[in-house]
Amino acid sequence: xxxxxxxxxxxxxxxxxxxxxxxxxxxxxxxxxxxxxxxxxxxxxxxxxxxxxxxxxxxxxxxxxxxxxxxxxxxxxxxxxxxxxxxxxxxxxxxxxxxxxxxxxxxxxxxxxxxxxxxxxxxxxxxxxxxxxxxxxxxxxxxxxxxxxxxxxxxxxxxxxxxxxxxxxxxxxxxxxxxxxxxxxxxxxxxxxxxxxxxxxxxxxxxxxxxxxxxxx
Length: 217
Prior knowledge:
The chain folds into 2 domains: 2-60; 65-215, no CATH class. The protein is elongated. A hairpin with a 2-residue loop joins β4 (201-207) and β5 (210-215). The protein has 9 helices and 5 strands; from the N terminus they run ααββαααααααβββ. By secondary structure, the chain is mostly helical. One of its GO terms (molecular function) is hydrolase activity. InterPro entries: Cell_wall_hydrolase_SleB, SleB_dom1. Residues 104-213 form the Cell wall hydrolase SleB domain. It comes from Paroceanicella profunda.
């Protein structure tokens, strides 16, 4: 179809006239080939224009309550169509955490990590802001809560498209997306490890590359 669209669009009026002649009989008459090609070019151009308008509308629409409720049904490509997410320091801390901890995950995997961070904010056992939760223990040997804050690697955002995607998830989560995936989890680890602290917690879910836990109490 793309090749046909390119070829048809390249035909100008004079070329269409040159190609004119008898087409297939319709109700006993003949339709000029030039007229038929004109109609096909117009139809393709209208389809392209309508598709462009739909994408533009999706990119500019506000995130509604329905959007927030249905984020788990969004594909990564649909998340990408949402407006660029913005916010203050707490939003930025959550977006950064999702970038380094979950940017390779599905939307559900990103949401699950965000749930843990936000659950910690509401727990009496952890600091009461996103930034304090994410940076808890940073700089202290074996005490950082999120490995990217003390692994010695650069925290520079190198993949802007991935960051914009996780930032949209962070924005939606901070704006009230129900936390339904992890059963109130306040901890997680990757499938590559099995920390000793898991013995004192209840496992609640496995989503993507992470296993989630909450306090037994």
